Amino acid sequence: GENVEQHPSTLSVQEGDSAVIKCTYSDSASNYFPWYKQELGKGPQLIIDIRSNVGEKKDQRIAVTLNKTAKHFSLHITETQPEDSAVYFCAAGYGYSTLTFGKGTMLLVSP
Amino acid sequence: EAQVTQNPRYLITVTGKKLTVTCSQNMNHEYMSWYRQDPGLGLRQIYYSMNVEVTDKGDVPEGYKVSRKEKRNFPLILESPSPNQTSLYFCASSLWRQDPTDTQYFGPGTRLTVL
Questions:
Q1: Within an 8 Å CB–CB cutoff, is residue B106 touching chain A?
Q2: Are B32 and B42 in contact (CB under 8 A)?
Q3: Contact B66, B34 (CB under 8 A)
Q4: Which residues contact B1 (CB under 8 A, 6 or more apart)?
Q5: pLDDT tens digits, chain A, 111 residues: what are they?
């Protein structure tokens, strides 16, 4: 089955800095790679996703890159703000029935 | 407001006492699923359902049951809970029509403690 590794497990940045979270996956058949943000006491919320036919996708301060050859994808957050502090999860799979999640990255943005 | 609701939000119970965690969505979604979240392990899928009366096992189905008699509801049943089922549980749903990668909406979570 799919195996997703996510690094780092914690990331501390100063407000305004950029943050990068990286994930690798094992199953070359995976074609869907979403990222979720989980705030304290809440369920995960989809923030951006990318499919295997695209190499990069941006949405305001958030971007995701995908390297299918190397089987890794990354989340980039620019101009971080304190409200970006949360746990971020990557996932890989083929549709929702086979999504495998990474173990999560706790991002702390200090004012 | 479009949402996924779960009840209860917190539950402390004892080993062997049957319990049900309810999940309901008001978005007419076809796809629903249950996950458990444990420290250091991330989210793992327990069961999922692609439509009424259609359910299938996820990665960690042992010790759990589900049913999908109505489109909006997808209860998670623990017939004989054990301490290793102490966890944070999330229900999720998505439209699933033609695109299996439709946005998945998560409920607020149910924190279960089995003593």
A1: yes
A2: no
A3: yes
A4: none
A5: 889 999 999 999 999 999 999 999 999 989 889 999 999 989 999 999 998 888 999 999 999 999 999 999 999 999 999 999 999 999 998 766 678 999 999 999 999
Q: What is the pLDDT of residue A99?
A: 84
Query: Mutate which of A6, A7, A99, A100 to test chain B, going by most B C-beta atoms within 10 A?
Result: A99
Name the residue facing B43 among A32, A42, A101 (closest C-beta).
A101
Q: Give the DSSP H or E segment for A85.
A: none
Is B95 touching A (CB cutoff 8 A)?
A: no
**Chain A residues with CB inside 8 Å of B31's CB?**
96
Kindly state the DSSP code that residue A9 receives in the 8-state scheme. Answer: S
Residue A7: CA atoms inside 13 Å, Cβ hemisphere, count?
A: 4
**A27 interface with B at CB cutoff 8 Å:** no
Give CA–CA dist A48/B71, Å, rounded. Answer: 27
B92 CB neighbours in chain A (<8 A) are 43, 96
Q: How far apart are CA A93 and CA A16, in angstroms?
A: 32
Find the closest chain A residue to B98 by CA distance. Answer: A95
Asked if A41 lies within 8 A of B59 by C-beta distance, the reply is no
Q: What is the pLDDT of residues B55-96, one digit of tens each?
A: 999 989 999 999 999 999 999 999 999 999 999 999 999 887
Q: Return the residue matching tokens 């990474």.
A: A102
